[in-house]
Design a protein that fits this description.
By secondary structure, the chain is α+β, with helices and mostly antiparallel strands. It is built from eleven helices and 20 strands. The protein has helices at residues 3-11, 42-53, 87-107, 126-139, 150-156, 182-195, 237-240, 242-245, 316-329, 379-390, 397-403, and strands at 34-38, 57-62, 77-80, 112-113, 117-121, 145-149, 167-171, 178-181, 199-202, 205-210, 213-219, 222-224, 228-231, 249-259, 275-278, 283-286, 294-298, 338-349, 355-359, 362-369. Mean pLDDT is 92; it is low at 1-16 and 20-29. Helix content is 29%, strand content 27%. The strands form four sheets. An eight-stranded mixed sheet has the order 6-7-5-15-16-17-14-18. The protein has a six-stranded mixed sheet with strand order 9-2-1-13-20-19. The chain has two domains: 20-109 and 181-248 and 351-403, FAD/NAD(P)-binding domain, CATH 3.50.50; 116-179 and 250-349, 2-Layer Sandwich (D-Amino Acid Oxidase, Chain A, domain 2), CATH 3.30.9. Bound molecules: flavin-adenine dinucleotide. Flavin-adenine dinucleotide binds at residues 38-44, 61-64, 68, 70-73, 78-79, 204-205, 232-236, 240, 254, 256, 297, 344-346, 369, 371-377.
Length: 410
């Protein structure tokens, strides 16, 4: 979709509701509630940002800093896509995209790359799925989805081995096919939050709980008190509220490897290759962005992970899997070395939905998390929704139901 058309549609509220301007709204409340947000990943920074914009006095704590390398939001890149089985996530992704773009403008930093997204499949049945996703996006005013045949894929991206690919969905940028610079995104939101009067502190925040009620936060030698507390601690949540959340959240590691591109070759670099995936292959990834290498993400077998203490070392089996995969799918990368690696973690709830809810025993305390494998992009809309709930503003009840802490456990 042409940018002018997109701006026109978003302004009319067709692509998500129009978003508020960035000027502080101190006059909205007759009092400034004091709120401590613990965790400066995508959910925490955006919650703090919105609360601050809405007139609250906010302190944001992070044990290691916004977008740090232990955080789930700490990687180089994250995909933004808008199609989803659930319309709530479609709306949230579109709204979030608009916020990320707006933040780019306000901060003067580049955070969104129009990489495009290529979802390939070896199975003909995928074509039906792709066509239905195309219709879903078009119903939201997003008209840049193509369903491709093998010949078109081979012609447009000859660097991909596609003899066994029968169809693909291609999204040409915008909310359904762009790449967010993840760590940088968290840092920029935090910086804008501080510019707008928020306080960011590097400290580990431990809840002080009496009879189930959170009465304050212990941060080093200090004891902090506020009217509301928000725990946006990603994979740390089960460790912070073990009795409640250990049975309801699963934290799993995911290995990320960067393969060097051959000398003098830019066919695997942005903008010459989109974000890519091969349906049911267990692999997806990104082009070489900012010289970091060609990124390959591997879906693991089941495992469990402690984000504070577990080693972030990739084993030789995963290195071999990556080499074998790129040799077959991206032959010109065969024999290129792994130039960097990361270990990240995903936090899954019992039904796969995010959680935004009050602690059952403590009305003044909110939990925001369970971002699973697709939470990053939604930070702006989830942060806005969380801020509104805390401050008692009207929100969509469909969101409330979806993000409720469920009774069931694993
Ligand atoms: C390999 C991988 C690929 C992914 N790909 C995508 C993708 O393409 N698109 C997408 O949208 N999503 C993707 N995701 C999912 C996404 O990254 C996560 O859902 C999201 O980052 C979760 O953010 P969060 O704010 O909940 O948690 P985090 O980012 O982990 O933030 C939690 C923060 O809390 C802090 N903290 C924890 N405990 C304390 C404490 N006691 N005191 C102070 N601070 C504390 C931590 O330091 C951390 O900064 C991917 C995830 C992984 C691992």
């Amino acid at each position: 979709m042409k940018r002018r058309k997109f701006v026109q549609l978003s302004g009319m509220g067709i692509i998500g509701a129009p978003i508020a301007d960035f000027s502080p709204k101190w006059s909205r409340f007759t009092f400034s509630p004091e709120i401590i947000v613990i965790g400066a990943g995508t959910f925490g920074v955006w919650t703090a940002y919105h609360l601050n914009q809405m007139g609250a006095k906010v302190t944001l704590l992070d044990a290691y800093g916004p977008g740090n390398s232990r955080a789930s939001s700490g990687g180089e890149t994250r995909l933004i896509q808008a199609d989803n089985d659930n319309q709530v996530y479609v709306q949230s992704a579109i709204r979030s995209y608009n916020w990320w773009k707006k933040l780019e403008k306000v901060s003067g930093e580049r955070l969104v790359l129009s990489t495009g997204r290529l979802a390939m499949s070896q199975q003909e049945i995928y074509r039906q799925h792709a066509l239905s996703r195309k219709r879903q996006l078009e119903s939201q005013g997003i008209n840049n989805t193509e369903v491709l045949n093998q010949d078109e894929i081979r012609y447009r991206w000859p660097q991909i081995y596609s003899d066994d690919i029968v169809t693909a969905m291609y999204n040409g940028g915008g909310p359904s096919g762009s790449t967010l610079l993840a760590r940088k995104g968290c840092q920029v939101v935090a910086r804008e939050f501080e510019k707008n009067g928020g306080t960011l502190t590097i400290a580990q925040g431990i809840p002080v709980v009496k009879n189930g009620k959170v009465e304050g936060i212990r941060a080093g030698n200090e004891s902090l008190k506020a009217q509301f507390y928000v725990f946006a601690c990603g994979p740390w949540l089960p460790k912070i509220f073990p009795e409640l959340l250990m049975p309801k959240l699963k934290v799993e590691r995911r290995d990320v490897l960067f393969v060097g591109t051959p000398p003098g070759n830019n066919e695997f670099s942005y903008p010459n290759l989109p974000e890519w995936s091969v349906y049911k292959s267990g692999f997806y990834g990104f082009p070489n962005i900012e010289g970091r290498g060609f990124k390959v993400v591997i879906y693991p077998d089941y495992n469990s992970f402690d984000p504070d203490t577990d080693e972030r070392i990739i084993n030789s089996y995963q290195v071999k899997r990556t080499h074998d995969f790129v040799k077959q799918r991206f032959p010109a990368l065969s024999g290129q070395p792994i130039t960097e690696s990361r270990v990240c973690q995903v936090t899954n709830s019992i039904d796969g939905n995010f959680i935004v809810d009050q602690l059952p025993s403590s009305e003044n305390t909110w939990i925001v998390g369970a971002g699973s494998g697709h939470g990053f992009k939604h930070g702006p809309a989830i942060g806005e929704y969380t801020a509104k709930r805390i401050l008692g503003e009207q929100v969509d009840q469909e969101f409330d139901q979806l993000f409720k802490l469920k009774e069931k456990a694993f």
